[in-house]
From TrEMBL:
Residues annotated for L-tryptophan binding in this entry: 132
Protein name: Tryptophan--tRNA ligase
Lineage of the organism: Bacteria, Candidatus Gribaldobacteria
Pfam family, one: tRNA-synt_1b
Binding site for ATP: 8-10, 16-17, 144-146, 183, 192-196
Species, as recorded: bacterium (Candidatus Gribaldobacteria) CG10_big_fil_rev_8_21_14_0_10_37_21
Length: 325
């Protein structure tokens, strides 16, 4: 099966990006044809520093390697290295109703967050995302649940294109992790954890032990004093239990029992120690990778060559179908 997924180089990746997306990739990489890419064109839709973008892109590649993505098994490439993404996005935009784009939750949220910069790219983001996925004839797209609406739109666009111009695209399906599909903010546990929010609201995959302890200790909880999974009444504790369960590979019920007569401080201390232990191999591997920056550039160059071949084949088909050649 063809697996395709990517991440924007908008900041250091957090445990939400890992549990919602990357952890699934590691499993899928064993038996599938995988493509994992860096969505730098998408990252241009929110305010950013041009000087920082290259560095952040290479950091995402380093994060992929540090968490276990193997460039020998999977293609890793940068979106802007394959011009067919932008080309197909334009073609697909001609069959996408503006109304469909205006009702996207991410467009509404990001327009609210960046009121002074509601650019057309922000509105067209899901069309570019549909182009990304469809170019590679992807079967499955493992992502967090926040991307479900965009995946559904990509499916609608693929079906519409196939109906109008003849069978051209594979209609992709989203793959969502059972428990980790939406990790919440540590500060506002009714909102998803986001790498562009305040650093206190997320645990980066490379936070130091001190940072982890401090952030978990100050995570928002409640006054019920009971370590119970109840997302409605205790969203903060439910989120911490979810994170604990996924990293410890232990059922939530068992963790509740373990901390049944203990306070939140003890539970948080246990979670911080668990995270420090589980994230240490990522930190160590990233330090090792940092010694060889050329390796990251080579991986992107090789990945782009392979990605271009696949993308060009699809573009030929698309242009023929649309009457452009
Ligand atoms: N909180 C989350 N829980 C589970 N999965 C998540 N993802 C993001 N946040 C969570 C998944 O991570 C992948 C990469 O996301 P992205 O960088 O393309 O953009 P995003 O979804 O907008 O992620 P962020 O962290 O919120 O970034 P910013 O702040 O830059 O917008 C996707 O598969 C996403 O579902």
């Amino acid at each position: 099966m063809k697996i395709f997924s990517g991440i924007q180089p908008t900041n250091q990746l957090h445990i939400g990006n890992y549990l919602g997306a990357i952890a699934q990739w590691i499993d899928l990489q064993k038996d599938n044809e995988c493509i994992f890419w860096i969505a730098d064109l998408h990252a241009l839709t929110v305010p950013y520093q041009a000087k920082e973008l290259q560095k952040r892109t290479l950091e995402v590649v380093a994060t992929y390697l540090a968490t276990g993505i193997d460039p020998e098994k999977s293609i890793i490439f940068r979106q802007s290295d394959v011009k067919e993404h932008s080309e197909l996005a334009w073609l697909l935009s001609t069959i996408t109703p503006v109304g469909d784009l205006e009702r996207m939750t991410q467009f509404k949220d990001k327009s609210q967050k960046h009121k002074a910069n509601i650019n057309a790219g922000l509105l067209n983001y899901p069309v570019l995302m549909a182009a990304d996925i469809l170019l590679y004839q992807s079967n499955r797209v493992p992502v967090g649940i926040d991307q479900k609406q965009h995946i559904e739109l990509a499916r609608t666009i693929a079906k519409k294109f196939n109906k109008k111009f003849g069978e051209t695209f594979i209609v992709p399906e989203g793959l969502y992790s059972k428990l980790g599909a939406k990790i919440m903010s540590l500060k506002e546990p009714t909102k998803k954890m986001s790498k562009s929010d305040s650093p206190d609201s997320f645990i980066s995959l490379f936070d130091s032990p001190e940072q982890i302890k401090k952030k978990i200790a100050s995570a928002t909880t409640d006054s019920l004093k009971s370590v119970k999974y109840n997302p409605e009444k205790q969203p903060g504790i439910a989120n911490l239990l979810t994170i604990y369960s996924l990293f410890a590979e232990q059922l939530i019920k068992e963790i509740e029992k373990e901390f049944a007569n203990k306070g939140y401080a003890e539970f948080k201390q246990g979670l911080a120690l668990l995270l420090i232990k589980k994230l240490k191999p990522f930190r160590d591997k990233k330090e090792e990778i940092a010694k060889n920056p050329e390796l990251l550039k080579d991986i992107l160059e090789n990945g782009a060559k392979k990605a271009r071949l696949i993308a060009q084949l699809t573009m030929q088909k698309v242009k023929q179908a649309m009457g452009l050649v």
